[in-house]
Amino acid sequence: MRGNRVFWSDVTIERAAADQWAILLDGKPVALPAGSSLIVPSAALAEKIADEWRLCCKNAIFNPEHMPLTQLAATQLERIAPRRREVVAQLVDIFRSDALLYRHGDDSLGQAQTRIFASPRETFEEMFGCALPWSEEITPIDIADGVIEAIEARLSSYDDVALTGLSVLSSMTASLILAHAILYGAITVDTGIACAFIEENAQMARWGRDEDREAGQASCRREIEHVLEYAALSATGQAV
After folding, report:
1. One Pfam family, short name please (predicted)?
2. How many helices (H) and strands (E) does the chain have?
């Protein structure tokens, strides 16, 4: 990809196989850093990714940070798909100390956490057929027998798109519970942000606004929206 210099002039897509679409630069497949070709499961997603590369041509600058869908595709192809078992294990590790298993006692913050965490927790309980514990101390939580095994089995059944979304979202929010609720539309993005940053927002409400923290939340919101767009476009399977 040659640093930040644009070296192509034409961006197209073509069917690579059934339900497989390649993005081409001057007629040649895009090669990702580890050597994979940039191939995605729908024409709709391929066109959106192609638009990111066309914008590079327009601006004459190649900046991967401005190509969120390309980055998600690269994550899926080169980090998730080849290491599915490792990714599932990482997601289970996040769950073991999941942010939504903890609340701040019975004070106002703890009561707010109990209230706002309720919907994503209930969604997770319904999906996995388990009752989630609460802890008011940052210590390891005893998880009921069979819960971890059920989570591992279900995660292992997910396709690469879902695992990519859950991996990115849970890393951002420190919560597999919240990642599930966001990815599967059980809560809005606004609610997801409110859950992920409830302690931070409580501190700002007490001590005043913090522009750096607000910018961090805005960045997280954009990343969540990109993940949801990527998942939706991957599922369309529509030719253009």
Report:
1. ATP12
2. 11, 4
Q: How far apart are CA 196 and CA 223, in angstroms?
A: 13
* Separation between Cα atoms, residue 214 and residue 217, nearest integer Å: 5
Instruction: Yes or no: say if 234 and 161 are a contact pair by the CB < 8 Å rule.
Output: yes
For residues 112-138, average pLDDT: 94
Q: For all residues of the chain together, what is the average pLDDT?
A: 92
pTM for the whole thing? 0.92
Directed axis angle between helix 211-236 and helix 160-173, to 10°? 170
Interval 5-16: pLDDT, tens: 788 889 999 998
Tokens 């192509």 label which residue?
8
Bridge partners of 37, per DSSP, are 31
**Contact indicator for 183, 63 with CB cutoff of 8 Å:** no
